[in-house]
What does this fold into?
Amino acid sequence: MATIGIIGGGINGLFSAYYLQKAGHQVTVLDQDNLSDGCSYGNAGMIVPSHIVPLAAPGMVATGLRWMLRSDSPFYLRPRLNGPLARWAWLFFKNSTAGNVEKGVPLLRDLSLLSKQLYQDFHRKNHFDFEWQEKGLLMLYQTPGVEHEEMEGAALANQAGIEAHVLNAREVQDLNPGATVNVRGGVFFPGDAHVNPNKLMAGLKKHLVENGVIFRQNQEVKGFEIRNRRVTGVVTAQEKLVFDEIVVAAGAWSAQLTAKLGFALPLQGGKGYSFVLAGEAPRVTIPSILLEARATATPMGGALRCAGTMEIAGIDLSVNMKRVQGIVNGINRFYPDLHVKTPEKTAVWSGLRPCSPDGLPFIGRLPTLENVTLATGHGMMGLSLGAATGKLVSELVMREKVSMPVEGFTPNRF
Ligand SMILES: Cc1cc2nc3c(=O)[nH]c(=O)nc-3n(C[C@H](O)[C@H](O)[C@H](O)COP(=O)(O)OP(=O)(O)OC[C@H]3O[C@@H](n4cnc5c(N)ncnc54)[C@H](O)[C@@H]3O)c2cc1C
It folds into this structure.
């Protein structure tokens, strides 16, 4: 039995803890927060094998630059004099190519399908209810340009073995009879699923505690002791802890930690918002992505959770109501009879997605140290990929045969 310290109790940290504990190890999860409201809680809850195209793709740079000029736009990169941001932006630009898409599609597909299968197994084990539902996903559009892009995306998905159906406006409406859907058409991905992430995180934590995983909350990891290419101590404000193996799953903060381990990880936080429309779930029964608005709507419990925006603006969780208004306007354009009102600022949740510059996660050992494994960089898909990431992390930590090749996710690829 080995002792494992996992830094970060988000979805990737908790699923790593789940598989490592099941393999018989003594696991401790450290978090600077109280595990109630981070990025893994307020997100849109979508499990998305449909998302096989990495964020860094041709056209993204031009789209991003165009959006940056509008204060209510869904994408924003706050210009700052900052070396890591400049390096990240340069790597994002360099990776927004057809070659990156070609390389990324099979990797994201296999990781996503593994994760969905592990979620299904996890659901079948019936540890607790997290509202697992396999109802698919609708990608909706209103303009011919986006329709064209999505039809290409659907063809690519079908070629890669991910079922996708192009629907006209009537067919979209028939799938969602509870509310008027104002669209030109959409692509339906029947293989996608969704969950209630708050219930998943709370249930997972309770399950881990009951099975002997130790949680040290409100303990920020501030530094490390390193000897002979090994981390020999994890230092928090309160104490120094010793583990055989360390997993860094610290979300958008991971680069700050790897810097202390002597490794410059290109990673930026991508801020997004969500808010809840109580009682509206029966009207929108299939999760949807409203493409031109870059907003999402997911039925969760009895409510509809709306989410959106991507602001690359550092470690900053403040809420910009102009961008929240952009999400509200987007939902009202696509679902006109929901009549969504602007939420109070205090009712808006914000979270930081850990974004890599090529749109692929970092899952692998740090090249400079022998006992540190990294699990971050999942961007918009961290929840979806969490189960597979946890499984792969446990195999990497134990130096076992991995469930799928992980070379493409190596932290050392830039
Ligand atoms: C609006 C929005 C909608 C989204 N929708 C979806 C979706 O539908 N599907 C999907 O798959 N993904 C979605 N995502 C992305 C997903 O939420 C993230 O990718 C995922 O939650 C990241 O999980 P994580 O475990 O890597 O990081 P986190 O959840 O951020 O966890 C990292 C943890 O590390 C802790 N930590 C950091 N530094 C330290 C330190 N020094 N010491 C101790 N602890 C530390 C933090 O407190 C935090 O709890 C969405 C994100 C947003 C913002």
